[in-house]
Design brief:
Layout (H helix, E strand, L loop, with lengths): L7 E2 L5 E3 L3 H51 L7 H48 L10
Antiparallel strand pairs: 1-2
Length: about 140
C-alpha cells in the first residue's frame, strides 16, 4: 500500500496521483527556510527591546542634563548636547519603527508560508490536487 505523500500506482505501473516535483521542492524549501526566518524574527525582537531601553536611557539623560543646566550657578551651555541626545533619540525611534515594520512583514510571511504548507499537506493527504497538476 502507498504511504502518505507517495504516489499511488495503477496496475499498469503508471502514477495515478501524487505530489509533483515542484510541490515537493516548494515544501522542502519552506522547511529549509523556516528556522532562518524564526531566528531572524527573534533577533529583530531582541534589537527592538534594546532600542526601547536605549530610548529610555536617552530620555533619562536628557532630563538629567536639563536639570543640571537649570541648577548650575555658572552658565553652562548644555543645550547643544540635549539637542544631540534628542536627535539620537529620534533616530532610535525611527530605526525601531523600521524594525517593527520589518518584523510585522516577516510575521505575516511566516504565517502565510505556514498556511500554504498546511493547505498543501491537506491536499496531499486527501488526494486532491490543484488544477493543472500533472498528477491528474
Amino acid at each position: 500500500m502507498a504511504g502518505a505523500g507517495s504516489a499511488a500506482v495503477s496496475g499498469a505501473g503508471t502514477p495515478v496521483a501524487g505530489p509533483t516535483g515542484r510541490d515537493l521542492f516548494a515544501e522542502g524549501l519552506l522547511e529549509f527556510l523556516r528556522p532562518a526566518v524564526q531566528q531572524l524574527d527573534s533577533h529583530v525582537h531582541a534589537v527592538r527591546e534594546s532600542q526601547v531601553e536605549l530610548r529610555e536611557q536617552i530620555d533619562n539623560l536628557a532630563t538629567e542634563l536639563c536639570r543640571i543646566n537649570e541648577d548650575q550657578k555658572i552658565a553652562l551651555d548644555l543645550d547643544p548636547y540635549v539637542k544631540k541626545l534628542l536627535n539620537a533619540r529620534r533616530r532610535v525611534v525611527l530605526v525601531n519603527n523600521i524594525l517593527q515594520n520589518a518584523q510585522e512583514r516577516l510575521r505575516r510571511l511566516n504565517h502565510s508560508v505556514a498556511k500554504e504548507t498546511a493547505r498543501r499537506r491537506a491536499m496531499l493527504d486527501s488526494g486532491i490536487y490543484p488544477p493543472g497538476s500533472p498528477s491528474k
